[in-house]
Write a structure and sequence with these properties.
Blueprint (H helix, E strand, L loop, with lengths): L2 H10 L5 E3 H12 L3 H13 L11 E4 L2 E4 L1 H11 L15 H9 L11 H23 L1
Antiparallel strand pairs: 1-3, 2-3
Length: about 140
């Protein structure tokens, strides 16, 4: 799980983008134990901005009792979540030159191939059928 991306995602979900430390820790614990999907998603998002540092880039501010996402943080998160039309360098809106250079310098990963849901369903049914047959054979 990518800590930096997770912090951005948690903060953007709160009113005004502000969360106290207890809430941040609780939400981090929930997401950290939510399974492989969240970890994979944060890795994919983090790959869009390789040298992401939420504090030094000014994406998150430390306030006395918690953290708050900035407008620049929201823009970078939107960029990370955007689905590009073509694999070419993109520049995120509303970011300063240092962040824009970081974002523009990276290549966007190609989109995944469309999933054939019917094929996956057939394969899953076949694996379950084979597992049942193995279980019957082992039971006798």
């Amino acid at each position: 799980m990518n800590f930096q991306v997770t912090v951005l995602k948690i903060l953007v979900s709160y009113p005004d983008g502000f969360a106290v430390m207890e809430d941040l820790k609780r939400d981090m614990a929930i997401l950290a134990t939510s399974g492989r999907d969240w970890a994979d998603r944060t890795k994919r998002l983090a790959a869009r901005v390789p040298d992401l540092d939420i504090f030094s880039h000014g994406l998150v501010e430390r306030i006395s009792s918690g953290w708050q996402i900035t407008a620049k943080g929201r823009a970078v998160l939107e960029f990370m979540e955007a689905r590009p039309a073509a694999p070419e360098p993109i520049q995120a809106p509303l970011v300063d030159e240092a962040t824009a250079a970081t974002v523009a310098a990276m290549q966007v990963a190609p989109l995944r191939q469309p999933v054939d849901r019917a094929k996956r369903r057939r394969e899953r049914r076949e694996r379950r059928r084979e597992a049942r047959e193995r279980a019957r054979a082992n039971a006798s």
